[in-house]
Design the sequence.
């Protein structure tokens, strides 16, 4: 696979459903099953490589990864005030969060701590999406070349879209309330699907999923395990099945799925002892793969489901405590994981790209 690095340099940052939104049956939390055992690294050609290293032991790289057309793009923290794509500096402004698809990134300009305006960047430069104090952007691309971005503010969850060759739409409010995070994916028709957590609002709090329904949104309730719900992430496979992973209060990583037009599956624990409030999910030819960070020892692991429906976990490597990992899966069903690894020769760290072979 030809590798091209995209380095987006970022500053580390460490609702109620809309009216008239019919609810969809939630997964049965009582049906949660046990986590799978850890697996030894597969015997095929797993490998790791250093992308970059730096001396700051307290940096939080917050890496992102995307694969398209045999090309790997990466974002990570390194310099604090510039955005770089290949050899081109695109923007000069502190940023506090980022989300990536191939050759495109959406960031938060750090005007007010970890909040600020939403900007989307490609090789043609930066475009402003929302000038408010926003946070936690999540970016998705659809099969037609359109881009979809979702993000949060103190007043709820917001969404904007750009068709291929078009311009960004005016931001649209999806949900109200104190939203803490959101993740977005687009299906084969280009319709967006979001998962987000509402901590406080005028109505029900919890983890929700929303789907585009005509000019509005259809809302599903997933879980009310507050305030510990974290690590929410969504991905869509080639048959438009939705796959969601999130963390519950007992620090377990839970997985649910939904077929088009169907109900959400019972929740299943796929990993114990999830240390951070972030996880990442990607879909390959063999199914879902979820990257997460454990607490003791602090490691990056990948949970994957095989053709028989069983989940296994692979230990990828040691990770700097408090940091996160990102994952993408290529056409050969190899998982590509990026994370910050502590260096053994002093108070420093390095960004690692690891490839993890498919589960047999």
Sequence:
């Amino acid at each position: 696979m030809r590798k091209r690095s995209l380095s987006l340099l970022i500053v580390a940052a460490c609702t109620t459903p809309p009216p008239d939104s019919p609810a969809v049956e939630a997964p049965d939390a009582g049906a949660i099953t046990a986590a799978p055992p850890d697996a030894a690294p597969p015997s095929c050609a797993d490998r790791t490589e250093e992308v970059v290293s730096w001396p700051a032991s307290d940096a939080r790289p917050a890496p992102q990864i995307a694969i398209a057309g045999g090309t790997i793009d990466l974002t990570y923290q390194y310099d604090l005030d510039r955005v770089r794509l290949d050899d081109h500096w695109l923007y000069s402004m502190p940023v506090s969060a980022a989300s990536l698809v191939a050759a495109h990134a959406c960031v938060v300009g750090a005007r007010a701590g970890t909040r600020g305006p939403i900007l989307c960047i490609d090789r043609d430069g930066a475009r402003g999406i929302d000038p408010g104090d926003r946070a936690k952007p999540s970016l998705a691309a659809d099969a037609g070349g359109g881009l979809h971005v979702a993000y949060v503010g103190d007043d709820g969850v917001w969404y904007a879209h750009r068709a291929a060759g078009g311009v960004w739409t005016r931001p649209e409010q999806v949900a109200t309330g104190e939203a803490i995070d959101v993740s977005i994916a687009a299906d084969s028709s280009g319709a967006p699907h979001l998962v987000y957590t509402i901590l406080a609002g005028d109505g029900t709090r919890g983890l929700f999923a929303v789907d585009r329904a005509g000019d509005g949104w259809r809302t599903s309730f997933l879980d009310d395990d507050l305030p510990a719900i974290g690590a929410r992430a969504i991905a869509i496979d080639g048959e438009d099945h939705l796959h969601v992973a999130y963390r519950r209060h007992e620090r377990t990583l839970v997985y649910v799925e939904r077929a088009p037009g169907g109900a959400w599956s019972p929740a299943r624990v796929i990993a114990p002892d999830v240390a951070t409030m972030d996880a990442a999910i990607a879909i390959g030819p063999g199914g879902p793969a979820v990257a997460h960070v454990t607490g003791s020892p602090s490691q990056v692991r990948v949970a994957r489901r095989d053709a028989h429906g069983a989940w296994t976990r692979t230990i990828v490597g040691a990770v700097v405590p408090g940091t996160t990992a990102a994952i993408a899966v290529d056409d050969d069903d190899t998982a590509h994981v990026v994370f910050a690894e502590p260096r053994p020769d002093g108070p420093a760290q390095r960004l690692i790209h690891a490839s993890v072979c498919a589960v047999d």
About this structure: Residues 1-31, 79-92 have pLDDT under 50 and may be disordered. Residues 303 and 312 are 6 Å apart (CA to CA). The radius of gyration is 19 Å. DSSP finds no helices and 28 strands in the chain.
